[in-house]
Amino acid sequence: MALSLSSLASPSQLLPLWQVLKRVPGGGVVMGRLAGRMAPYTGTIRPEVLTLEKGYARIRMRDTRRVRNHLNSVHAIALMNLGEVSTGMAVITALPEGMRGIISRLSMDYLKKGRGPLVAECSCPVITSTEKQDLEVTAELKNEAGEVVAIAHAKWRVGA
Question: CA end-to-end span of the chain, whole Å?
Answer without folding.
Answer: 23
